[in-house]
Every structure is written in structure tokens, then in C-alpha cells.
Amino acid sequence: MAFESCLFCLMFLLAAGTLTGTLYAMWVSFHEQEIRAIWRVGCAGVLLTLFFVAAAKTGLWLSLPLVVLTFCTGMILWLPWRQRKETPSIPVRCIDERDTIFSRSHLEPGSERFDSYYAANPEKRSLDDGFRAKPGLLKPGSRYFDPHLFAAAEASFSAVAALHSLAEGTPHSQQKSTDALQITALIKQWGLKLGARGVGITGLQDYHLYTHLGRNEPYGQEIVREHEYAIAVTVEMSRQMLDHAPYAPAVMESAQQYFNAGAIAVQLALFIRNLGYPARAHIDGNYQVICPLVARDAGLGEIGRMGLLMTPGLGPRVRLAVVTTNLPLICDAPGFDDTVLDFCRRCEKCATVCPSQAIPYGDCSEKNGVRRWQIDSEACYTYWCSIGTDCGRCVRICPYAHADNGLHNLVRAGVRRSPVARALAVWGDDWLYGKNPKPRPFSGLRGYQG
Ligand code: SF4
Ligand code: SF4
To answer: Domain ends where: 79, 112, 133?
Structure first.
């Protein structure tokens, strides 16, 4: 009799917990304006609650297996499983910035630089003629051209460019003595105070650096490693703005966050130079390092299917900047995270929604000594040039890019622990939010935060 009462109480607790969880999930979805998720989670939660109540009334024969089943499911989803170990991927060959799509997009047809680049790389000529035939990023004639919103994005990019002059400079003539542990803590805390979502430190390696300058002068100059440490900074991109991707708000947000990340990096570099140590900020348009690789090695995340850094709390919904320096610092452990790679293997959602089919399906393969997915950057950039924005559909729909709140963090915690939770989360994301949800129409910035 006592056992039956206990079981009844457990069933009641299960029903109450399910109902509370359902209401919380509906409340979160309401704030995220996810109408489909509100209905689906509401209906499923109420049905499950009623089922628990009905089972409690039938007595022992159904309640007992249900309690055992619920307990086992919870264990399977929550207890940490042994992960498949990936070998940390280190590129064997460094990348020449002149070969990147952004550098190639700056080549002026008819110029000597243009002619000599394509004479040395004839296979890239027809690919690049594809994006040159389109109106271009932020240009009139592009599909989502909006004179006001594009002007706002352009202003943010101009503001980033204005920061370039502060990226490098001469350190203070008197070097202040520092303790590595204390100054590392201060730099991280100050970076977060300035608005960063993550600050990580790694030893600067040759493979972090481009081999030659491609977007800055002197074009083609060899890049030599001068610093020992790299500080990587992430800033958050607004979920609200990205909900409109690929429309103009996506590129407004990209540009603004490039500026925010750049401003933080420039201030950190100035701070370090004031201490008497050399430091260089690597920000949009003046990188000498490959930011996602540095950020991964600095413990801020893993690189996923779309080739972007996947951070634990915001997924790919971040922008990056880096400061390189010789100020002695304490490095973080690298962010090699097998669970992200496993999730990406199962998910493929970004590949499905990509309008230019630039993101590969299937497993990753070895390229340049690294097991990774490689996106078709020409296809992606050509699409940008036809619509006028930097698209961002892949970032918007990534299941890791949901808001940083209790509900999604609970899912993220399960995903980090259990392959079953990962499989369920991939399916659940499609079921709740749709496999290819439509971009939200944009009607103004009233009520937008961040
Ligand atoms: S959408 Fe899916 S496959 Fe693409 S990066 Fe995000 S988790 Fe990985
Ligand atoms: S930004 Fe757009 S076009 Fe480029 S990879 Fe992402 S979804 Fe595809």
C-alpha cells in the first residue's frame, strides 16, 4: 500500500513537472515569437501530462513501467557517454590570403594585379567572373537592396575601417612588470566588460597566420609570425536581427558586430601597448590570422559543417576578432569538441537551407591535413553579390544558434553528454521550428535589443 502511494506521488510529480516544463517552454517560445513551437510543445506537453495522470489512476500495472521508462530515458539523455575521439586537426599547409574570396573580390579588372593573379590561377577566373557579373554586396540592383538599411550597414563597415589605423602601434617605451596569471585574468575580465561574450588565449602558431597579405597593402607581402600569443574575442549577433536573414537586417547585424568585435580588439591592443608590449588587433578587413582557427585553439568552440566557429552558448551566432601580442599570458585548453562534429554529422540543416548549395552534405573529409567540411566559398559569395547582403541563412537556422536561455541551454547540456540526446535534438529542432523556416519579414527595429 505504501509502495502504491509512493508510486502515485511519483506519477503526480511527473505530471506536474511535465506541465511546468511545458508552460516554461511555451513562455520561452512566445518570447522568441516561434508560433509553431508554442503550439507543438503545448499540445505535446498537455497530452503527456494527461497521459501521466490517467496512468496514475489505472494503478500499478501501468504506473510502474512508466516511472521506470521515464527514469531510464532521463538517464540515457543526461548521463555522459564516452565520446568518439577525433584527432585534433592541425592544418599542414598555411593559407595565402590572396586566394580568399574577399581578396579576389577586390581585384580590379584590367589592373596588373588582376592579370597576374589570374595568370597564376587560371582555374579561378571563370568562378570569379560569376560573382563579378552580379550587382555586388550592398549595391543597388541587388535583390534585397534597401537604400536606408544598406546605408546603415555601409556606415558600420566604414566605422570598422576607421579602426584599422589603431590596430597597430608602438608600445609604450617603459615596460610595466606584469604577472601572467593576473594580467590574463584582467584582460579576460576587461574584454567581457567591453562587451565580448567570450575571451580565450592560445599560443600563436604558424598555421594561424595567412602566408601573404591579400586585402591590405603591401599586397603579397609575406606575413611573418612576430608574436607569441593570440587573444580571441567573440561577440554575439542578435537573434532578432538574424531572424530576418537573408534580408538587409542580417548584413546590418554582421557589420555592427564586426565593429563591436573590432572595437574591443583595438582597445585590448592599445591597453597592452600601454603596458609596453607589442600588440596587433586583427579585425574585419585587416586580418593576418584565420580567426576561427585561433578561437578554436583558444578554447572558444569547435568548427562545424558551415566552416564557422561553433561556440557553446551561441553556436555560430558570433563575430570574431583577435589580438596578437608578446605580453606573457596563460593559454586556455583548445576547444576540440567531438560532440559538435557528431551533431553536425547528423544535422545537415544548414546544407538543406543554403540557397546556393554551398554547404556540403555527408561526413567531413581530410583537406590540408584536417578533417573538416569545406564550403563552396565561390557559390556562397556569388549569392551574396546577387542579393546584396551576406545572407546568414545557415547561421540563423543552426540548432546551436538558439537564444542563450535556460530551455536551450538544457538541450545544449544534453547534446554535449549523450548521442541519443543529439539524435533527438536534431529531430526535435526540425519538428518544433521546421526544416527550412521562412525568414521573418522586416517591419522596423522597434523593441530590438542588443
Ligand atoms: S546547422 Fe546543423 S550541420 Fe549546420 S553547423 Fe549547425 S549543427 Fe552543424
Ligand atoms: S551565408 Fe547563405 S549562401 Fe553562404 S553558406 Fe550560409 S546559407 Fe549558404
So the answer is: 79
